[in-house]
Amino acid sequence: MGRDHRPGPPIAGVAALAVVLKAAELLCSAGIPALYTAVLSQQNLPAWAHYGYLGLDIVGSMADDALMVTLAVLALSSSRLTERGGRWLKLLSGAVMLLLGLALLLRPGWLL
């Protein structure tokens, strides 16, 4: 009876939470992909280029998510997030969202 094994969270609960979070995220951020595909459809590109740009968009968003998850896991595994650290994290994420919003309003071509 050597090893002390602590069971992790049930996989069905983790999967259900992921589905619910993705559904909420989709409702909040569906506008940008819809705009991207609408602009892409108006370009009269050959099929391979059209699907290539869609694939590039998917890979880019997956890479972004993977980077954020990796950084969060590394940051949270090394130490607990303090209240001050949480405030800085909120400030940084808010600044990034503000910059992206300004770019979308003022220079939408930069985001294509």
What can be said about this structure in brief?
This protein has about 110 residues and is mainly α.
Model description:
- The protein is 77% helix and 0% strand.
- The relative contact order is 0.05.
- It has 112 residues and is mainly α.
- The chain has a domain of 33 residues.
- The protein starts with 10 loop residues before the first helix and ends in a 6-residue tail after the last helix.
Keywords:
mainly alpha; globular; 112 residues
| Largest sheet geometry | none
**H/E topology pattern:** HHHH
The oligomeric status of these chains comes to single chain
Number of helices: 4
Which percent band covers the strand fraction?
Answer: under 5%
Helix content: over 70%
Give the integer mean of the pLDDT values.
Answer: 80
Poorly predicted regions: none
- For the terminal residues, how far apart are their CA atoms? 58 Å
Tell me the structural class: mainly alpha
The general outline is globular
**Total count of strands:** 0
* CA-based gyration radius: 19 Å
SSE topology sketch:
Elements: H1 11-29, H2 31-41, H3 47-78, H4 83-106
